[in-house]
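Hi everyone, sorry if this is the wrong subforum. Our group has a chain we'd like a structural model of before ordering constructs, and none of us has done structure prediction before. Sequence below.
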Amino acid sequence: MHSVIEQESVARAEMRPIPGGTFLMGSNRHYPEEAPAHQVRIDSFWVDATPVTNRQFREFVDATGYVTFAEIPPDPADYPGALREMLRASSLVFTPPKARVDLRNWTAWWTFMSGANWKHPYGPGSSIEGLDDHPAVHIAYRDAEAYAAWAGKELPTEAEWEFAARGGIEGAEFAWGDEFTPGGKIMANTWHGQFPHRRNGPFKRTSPVKSFPPNGYGLYDMIGNVWEWTSDWYAPRHTGDLAKACCIPNNPRGGCPEGSFDPCQPEIKIPRKVLKGGSHLCAANYCRRYRPAARHAQPVDTSMSHIGFRCIRRESSTKAESPS
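Answer:
Right subforum, don't worry. Here is the predicted structure as tokens:
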């Protein structure tokens, strides 16, 4: 059995240093929620080199007996008017249709499946056998928070995540530059083909972490593979630059719970957090969110087969034990 010191050493060795600095966050050229692009200042911190894997999440569950949100039946009081069959321990699983469908109807490829969770990513009968090095999925926000606390880490803010994803390249479209497939090389696990019924490429769903090149900070899968939780409450737009350069936000925490509610479901007061990075389901013909600036709102109670996370340690909490 590893000693506490050995466990700390292993945890630090799997993290990468992010130097901090000022960068242009967001984008004015894509989806409206990414705008306006604005200056943000970030302090230095450390970040996991990869999303948390099934192997790592299993260690957490084995050590603590933790039960994920997808394994617990919902409380009817939280979901007024919900159908009885929806009030079961469930999660959303991507189920590709056999033919072209209306891209405005997401229910054509997402199935609310009882028995789907991190141990059974495609529903009852499936398992994570052979997927130790794949990202853990069906992770709700509470699950990611619980793992981070157990590991002595935290979840990144949206600004920290985006700064790390850019890998030191200022203003580039992608985490590796301005070309999606430079020289024809695939740089991330995204959807190649016609979404959602025809997929090309080497992986059917998630891929093992480190299957694609790291960015400039040595971070893998910051783009594609799985969406990743951040600690920021979602807001439909960024706050623009202030009039004076001296007022650049430092380590901002965005939004508030009430402002993050889904306006399309006013009767359900479930707050939403910001997801970043896109996933293996992001496609040119449907969702071009495989970019550092891209962002997506996710209810804190909802897990899906393409959502995972990674953790950070802020410099203020690691100065006494700086990773090497």
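For your construct planning: The mean pLDDT is 91. The radius of gyration is 19 Å.
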